[in-house]
Prior knowledge:
With 568 residues, the protein is an alpha/beta fold. It has two domains: 4-269 and 473-540 and 552-557, 3-Layer(aba) Sandwich (Alkaline Phosphatase, subunit A); 274-464, no CATH class. It is 37% helix and 16% strand. It has 19 helices and 24 strands. Strands 1, 2, 5, 6, 7, 8, 9, 20, 21 and 22 form a ten-stranded mixed sheet that branches. α18 (526-531) links the parallel β23 (511-512) and β24 (536-537). α7 packs antiparallel against α8 (206-214), α7 packs parallel to α9 (227-252) and α14 crosses α19 (551-564). The longest helix is centred in the N-terminal third of the chain and has 29 residues, at 167-195. It is globular. It starts with a strand and ends with a helix. Residues 332-347 and 545-550 have low confidence and may be disordered.
Amino acid sequence: MDRVLVICLDGATFDLLDPWMASGRLPGLKRFVDEGVRGALESVVPPITAPAWASFMTGKNPGKHGVYYFVNRGFKSGEATFVDSRSRRGRALWHFLGEAGKKVLILNVPTTYPPEKVNGALISDFLTPPGRRDFAYPASLVGELEEKYGKYPLHLKTLTFSPGMSARNAQRLLKELRREARIKFDAAHYLLDKVDPDFCILHLLGTDRVQHELWSLFDPEHPLHREDMRRSCAESVIDYFAEVDGEIERLTSRFDEHATIFVISDHGFGPVRKVIDLNVWLLENGYIQIRTGARSRIKGALWKRGLTKEKVTRIALRTFFRYGAGIAARIPDASIFKSMLFLARHGDRGSLLFSFDDVDWARTKAYAPVGMGAIYINLRGREEQGSVAPGAEYESLKAEIVARLRTLEDPITGERISAEVYPREEIYHGPYLDRGPDIVFLPNQSGLFAGGMTGFFSNRWIFPNAAWPGHHRMQGILLARGGRCKRGARIEGARLIDLAPTILHVLGVSIPADMDGRVLTEIFDRTFVEARPVAYRPPEEDAQAALPFSQGEEGEVQRRLKELGYLL
Length: 568
């Protein structure tokens, strides 16, 4: 019988896994390389959790499912709603499997809260608002699992601590990540017996978080590398991955040789040595204009002299996260939420520091909201105070900014900044193209992170990184073995959006014609490819309405993303 298992190691990269496999520390993953197929897996642009997993499950680019970041922006209102399962347009691959009579088990895949009815069982993800008990389908599974394993680890309590790096905080995080892995894998075994699925998918968040915080341990050239931290913690990080590897071996042993098993990541990882604040660059180049009132002029003058969020944040993070991470782990989620609710809801509004409050939007041409590499043109008719006319003026301005970003130089070193710069039409298409950024700027491969911070984070558009030493890269991992997979093969050109049609094909289910991904026939042996031609079905209209979180839920999710470091 055809069965498929997918294990998602969020953010996993061969850059770390390869040497650990070669040294014998990860025998389970090494078996995939020796007995199956390996290759890089290209993420979506930008390589961020929410759009990546929405693209994985739909087989579509963000222009068709409408998810570009953790938030959906309201251009006219200025408000942003956090994405959830109701925000995504297009149906997930497990719904097509369920319609075909296949049983499914969906465990912790991001953007699956609130849980949808499936032909089997579903446990939602870390974007579930803390305190909610409705994160499973059927709902009875929450109590059932927690009676056996204790509180289910949807959320991590250890706050981001890399600005106040210490061995104690690192070991605290690793202890929590080991618990997350143990319970999630134990629950998977229990639910495999209960559901007996044809398709099972399990997502692990910890592999992403540990690289964000501790990447510099394995990079002696990183400006945040500390030899004392490497000596005290590097082996513990490898031990954590070895434990995950052991859990993978234990889970895959439940599937016979006829099952096709994938280990994937939604994106890769790499070092971040410097940060680019796109809003400061846009300001310096005249695309953002500042109000002429006395208050804004004074705030701007102080900002130029060094009174910046960068300075305040560095001081706050180095003190609080050096001493406060352990304290926070003992405080109930609701109490932390109340203390941060004002900041979560109001952000820059009313800030005493130089911020978006000081922008003259009627004269501003472009800006960067919170996120990775996204620039929006202040388009008339779309934005609340749009200043750029649609058509020729819009296209000319967009082309001008793209050209300048492609020739950008580091003002300190004088070196050209190597980056991918995309006008949105080059990377997105579909009915929700208008929700996406007009330009995406990704210098990730150069060891840089670019984005909109909170207003004007620094008074320099490029500055040394002080927080997460590691961040996302475009190339994740793809490993596959069993079933009809080739043995000892390497492939190129696989994309995250190719997994949905490939999984449907393996399980004998026709593929909706509007999926952007393709079946990865190159991972299978010739006999299977010839015996099972790829079958398509007509595209299906999705009548699903996008319903936002309530205000309270939204504040809690925003707090959680701040703790994880995705929002400042």
